[in-house]
Amino acid sequence: MNSGSARPGPGRRGHLSGPRVRLRPPAPEDLPLLFRWMNDPEAVAPWDRFEVDSYEGLAQSVREAPTDPRSLAPRLVVVRREDDKPLGVVGYYLAHNALDTVDLWYAICLPEERGKGYGAEAVSLLADFVFSQQKVSRVGAVADVENPPSYHLLERLGFSLEGRVRQALFHHGQWHDVVVYGLTRAEWERKGPSPAGQA
Ligand SMILES: CC(C)(COP(=O)(O)OP(=O)(O)OC[C@H]1O[C@@H](n2cnc3c(N)ncnc32)[C@H](O)[C@@H]1OP(=O)(O)O)[C@@H](O)C(=O)NCCC(=O)NCCS
What we know:
The chain has a single domain (about 20-195), classed as 3-Layer(aba) Sandwich (Aminopeptidase), CATH 3.40.630. Strands 1-2-3-4-5-7-6 form a seven-stranded mixed sheet. It is an alpha+beta fold. It contains six helices and seven strands; from the N terminus they run E-H-H-H-E-E-E-H-E-H-E-E-H. The chain is globular and about 40 Å long. Bound molecules: coenzyme A (COA). Coenzyme A (COA) binds near residues 46, 114 and 153.
């Protein structure tokens, strides 16, 4: 990433394992599942832009993501600890050429596993990881105004609503407004390890 050398966070922050889920980089064996998910709008993009990917294109973007700060590829697989079942994927990307901020994205790809707290725990781990590994001063996320689970998740993790961007996202045949959320490093340091992120 552009943000320089690793900066270890305090205590157990930056770990990739919480009480119920852990995050791990995709292994080659995960690619068929990721390919299925990334090509299923209900799995990854019920409230978002959706683009079909080729298997080779996905494999290449996953391979190149570690050296591409702007990559939107899935960077980490969300796995349930009790049975190692993959539940979803998360990613992060340098959101703006001139600003020192990284945006997160996240999907619990099995609809029947949503609403059980896995998403909040995964994003808490992801935010801890990004703040611990990079020098960024802010971590953000953008959610469709019609996607309450996404922005409720951010609010639960202490992100603040920073604004609304009108007509910024085209999907399902129309333009949608999005809400922008952010968590500054100072806020992250103040709030301490979130319950969702404690091991
Ligand atoms: C957004 C998403 C990752 C949330 O993960 P999740 O595991 O379902 O969410 P959680 O169970 O951790 O709940 C997070 C918050 O959303 C709320 N929530 C969950 N499902 C909800 C629903 N259907 N309607 C309203 N709020 C909901 C929860 O109550 C919780 O808020 P709270 O702490 O204030 O109660 C998941 O719904 C998903 O993958 N959706 C499809 C992909 C997507 O939209 N990704 C976000 C775009 S970047």
